[in-house]
TrEMBL record:
It is found in: Cell membrane. It is a multi-pass membrane protein. The chain crosses the membrane at residues 31-50, 56-77, 107-130, 137-160, 180-208, 229-248, 260-278, 285-302, 308-330. Its main location: membrane. Keywords: Cell inner membrane, Cell membrane, Membrane, Transmembrane, Transmembrane helix, Transport. The keyword Transmembrane helix applies. Pfam families: BPD_transp_2. GO terms for molecular function: transmembrane transporter activity. This is Autoinducer 2 import system permease protein LsrD. It comes from the Bacteria.
């Protein structure tokens, strides 16, 4: 009986889990945050005026629409889908906002109508993906062209520039006497809301489950189609909000506003550690990815480089993020494959000794 009591203790998850510091620091989120710190430090030392408070002020204003759209895009990509129409929805929102205001309605009413229209545009994507089972890549490529065509066709080459100064001043206002934009407050609130929803609610767990396996998620009680419809609708709504911000900041409603912004958004999300295959991602890494792309763009502009080079670097970062995700996934599978036989061997080697002791 005493020999049986001397048997090896049961194998538990806690006994084989990685240390907390390794789970916290050895992640893609931590890696992108560390890269951001390195790039920011280098730019502050090497590029004239980069560390000035006014540079930070304009950096926050520049990345605000990208950050807004990246929040719902993160949730959509985690489910295994994608929305390429976001920049076109920004342009559509800008045009609708401008046209409604030009017809004599108050700015606040024009905002609400533009947001409702963009939510409907996002819901259209969601219905086509969930109800009819169409691939989101094909659907949103089509609606990207559709929404941009409507926006450009409504105004042509003209722009609506008659906006009340008070609204433009509000968008670019500062907190007190600092160089921190007032826009930082609603941005932080939205970041917290999306982070809590994704990481600390049943709805967020359903998002991860849908990205890992739709069938398993359905068996677990997750309404996958409803979840995706909500996310696409939310993407349209937030993109519409970004379009209103874009219009008020630059004082111009145009159909070609935010052209190409979807590339920056997707690059930031993937660079922030969200898997293009779904099932993995976190809000902190995405925020770091957005700020990193904005920092690189700001530094290059201050250094006198062209916008074309910024686009090239953004594309390279997007490709690098996808390759890195694939390499890490392949490495993880290889490590897991080698570890499993080893653990089985340890267990089988324990069995004879325990039987012998019996």
């Amino acid at each position: 009986m005493s020999l049986l009591a001397e048997k090896a203790p049961a194998r538990t998850y806690a006994a084989h889990a990685k240390p907390w510091w390794q789970r916290t620091l050895m992640t893609r989120d931590s890696a992108i945050i560390a890269l951001l710190v390195v790039v920011w430090t280098y730019a502050s030392i090497a590029i004239l005026n980069f560390s000035d408070p006014i540079t930070v002020y304009f950096l926050v204003l520049d990345i605000a629409p990208i950050l807004l759209i990246a929040l719902p895009m993160t949730l959509i990509i985690i489910t295994g889908e994608i929305d390429l129409s976001v920049a076109s929805v920004v342009g559509l929102s800008s045009v609708l906002f401008g046209v409604v205001h030009r017809e004599g309605l108050p700015v606040a009413v024009a905002m609400v109508l533009a947001l409702l229209a963009c939510a409907v545009a996002g819901a259209l994507n969601g219905v086509l993906v969930t109800r009819y089972g169409l691939p989101s890549l094909a659907v949103t490529i089509g609606t990207m062209a559709l929404f941009r065509g409507i926006a450009v066709g409504a105004l042509g080459t003209t722009a609506i520039t008659d906006w009340p100064d008070a609204w433009g001043d509000l968008v670019q206002a500062r907190i007190g006497g600092s160089q921190i934009p007032l826009m930082t407050i609603p941005l932080v609130v939205l970041i917290v809301v999306f982070a809590v929803v994704l990481h600390f609610t049943p709805f967020g767990r359903g998002i991860f489950a849908a990205g890992l396996s739709k069938d398993a998620a359905r068996f677990s009680g997750v309404n996958v189609d409803r979840t995706k419809l909500i996310l696409f609708t939310l993407s349209g709504l937030i993109s519409g909000l970004a379009g209103i911000y874009f219009t008020l900041r630059y004082g111009s409603a145009r159909g070609d506003n935010a052209t190409g912004m979807e590339l920056q958004v997707i690059a930031a999300v993937l660079l922030g550690g969200v898997s293009i295959f779904g099932g993995r991602g976190a809000i902190p890494g995405v925020i770091a990815g957005v700020v990193l792309i904005g920092t690189i763009g700001s530094a290059l502009r201050l250094d006198g480089l062209s916008a074309n080079l910024i686009q090239i670097i953004t594309g390279v970062l997007l490709i690098a993020a996808v390759i890195a995700a694939s390499v890490l996934g392949w490495t993880g599978r290889i490590v897991g494959t080698h570890r499993l036989p080893k653990e089985r061997g340890e267990q089988s080697s324990d069995e004879p000794s325990s039987k012998k002791s019996e």
